[in-house]
Amino acid sequence: MSSWPRGRSADGGIDEIPVPVSGQLWLCGKHVVGPDPAGALARVGATSIVCFNQTHEIDERYPGYVDWLRDPESFARWFPTPDLGVRPFEEFLELVDAVADDLRSGARVIAHCGAGIGRAGTFAVAVLLALGLDATQAEATVAAHRPMAGPEAGSQRELVELLADHFAAGQH
């Protein structure tokens, strides 16, 4: 008899978000990545990780992950963002554009926050906007592939609306 919990019950799971380019994007929570970032990359064949957790969210439980994120040799972009919050528009846009370019080049990216829903979900919607989907398509795609993922709070919703207008106007 195998022990419980396993799979999604153990770590929240990792879900692929379809992107209209050659790369791949996955969303998950910190419990997928924190214990073994290299193992998380190998689990789906990813090439990099984008982490939205703040230090205090991960340092007590996963101190090795914090060290990995700080290592310039790691395959990580660490973008600490308050839970239910956002970072300034220009900073977020720079990250979104960089990851969208990576995906166009065939990169395979894991993005995560605490549960892989709000911050990471907002990011996934933004990346899809950068890759040419409209806001309705982007939000529906993310929500269909990662349960409950997408903008969770008013500030996240406002950021998506600003980005949708930005990309619709062709302002790359």
Model description:
The protein has 172 residues and is an alpha/beta fold. The protein has a single domain, classed as Alpha-Beta Complex (Protein-Tyrosine Phosphatase, Chain A), CATH 3.90.190.10. The chain has nine helices and five strands. The protein has helices at residues 8-11, 30-33, 37-44, 55-58, 63-70, 89-104, 119-130, 135-145, 154-168, and strands spanning 14-17, 24-29, 48-51, 76-78, 108-113. Strand 1 (14-17) and strand 2 form a beta hairpin. Helix 7 packs across helix 8 and helix 7 (119-130) packs parallel to helix 9. The longest helix has 16 residues, at 89-104. The termini are far apart.
Category from helices, strands and their pairing: alpha/beta
Looking at the chains present, what oligomeric state does this protein adopt?
Answer: single chain
Helix tally? 9
The shape, in one word, is: globular
User: Roughly what is the average pLDDT, rounded to an integer?
Assistant: 92
Radius of gyration: 15 Å
Structure summary, number of beta strands: 5
> In whole angstroms, how far apart are the ends?
54 Å
CATH domain fold name: Protein-Tyrosine Phosphatase, Chain A
Summarize the structure.
The chain is an alpha/beta fold and 172 residues long. It has helices at residues 8-11, 30-33, 37-44, 55-58, 63-70, 89-104, 119-130, 135-145, 154-168, and strands at residues 14-17, 24-29, 48-51, 76-78, 108-113.
For the structure shown, list the relevant keywords.
Protein-Tyrosine Phosphatase, Chain A, 5 strands, 5-stranded mixed β-sheet, 172 residues, 9 helices, single chain, alpha/beta
